[in-house]
Amino acid sequence: MLAKWLTADRVKIVEQTAGWRDAVRLSAAPLLAAGAISPCYVEAIFASHEKLGPYYVIAPGLAMPHARPEEGVITPGLSLLYVKQGVHFESEENDPVYVVVMLCAINGEEHLEMISHLAELFSDEDDFQALIKADTYPALNALIQKY
Amino acid sequence: MKKILIVCGNGLGSSFIVEMNVKKIIKELGKEAEVSHTDLSSAKSEAADIYIGSNEIIASLDDGKRTVFGLNNLLDNAKIKEILSNNL
After folding, report:
1. Mind listing the pLDDT tens digit for each residue in A40-88?
2. N or C: which end of chain B has fewer CB within 10 A?
3. How far apart are CA B18 and CA B74, in angstroms?
């Protein structure tokens, strides 16, 4: 089911980014281009980072930036950015981040479905480790197709 | 029945994932609890027996009265299992 959300145009691999803000902007780009979010969504993510810290860096190597539905979500969606050299999100325990999954959700069935498939991938120890190391499109896509 | 509240910044992404994992672990342990997820500001006015969230989030919930558990890694299910076996 993740393949339905993480289509080829929403998966991007870069060598490096100019800091965490750049990583957030790059992961927002395909969702902005598709009209799934408005530019204020990205600003809301920056604002909550400033207020609450990088709480959305949920595990070593993995960030899941998102804001609330009313902060600029037009349609539900996901994007995935892989940063080969890793990027620091000011998260003491979980930096560097390699995988940035941006989430834009509206409460309801689709949200539930999207999150539960992500949870399955993230909670399988072997596949989670594979995801953090999957620095090529075929490797990432193999995991996306599996969940 | 004990109530567990999973807390994250926005109450819809990571807390939801952790809620699903917590429910699964409670089942594995053969225990029962009411589990839900919410955002930080709602959590401050919502009563629960156990609060779980990332360290950053949980620090601002810890008033000395609440039972709070902070995690560095929200996907660390072994740690969550340990918390639940000791506190349910």
Report:
1. 999 999 999 999 899 899 999 999 999 999 999 999 999 999 999 999 9
2. N
3. 7
CA angle A86, A92, A94 (to 5 degrees): 50
Distance between CA atoms of residues A101 and A131, nearest Å? 11
Q: Best of A24, A58, A71 to disrupt the B interface by mutation (most B CBs within 10 Å)?
A: A58
pLDDT at residue B21, rounded to an integer: 94
Give the count of beta carbons closer than 10 Å to the beta carbon of residue B81: 17
From B8, B25, B33, B52, the catalytic residue? B8
H-type alpha helices, chain A: 2-5, 20-33, 39-52, 109-123, 125-133, 137-146
CB-CB under 8 Å, A122 with B73: no
What gap in Å lies between CA B30 and CA A15, rounded to an integer?
46
Q: How far apart are CA B88 and CA B86, in angstroms?
A: 6
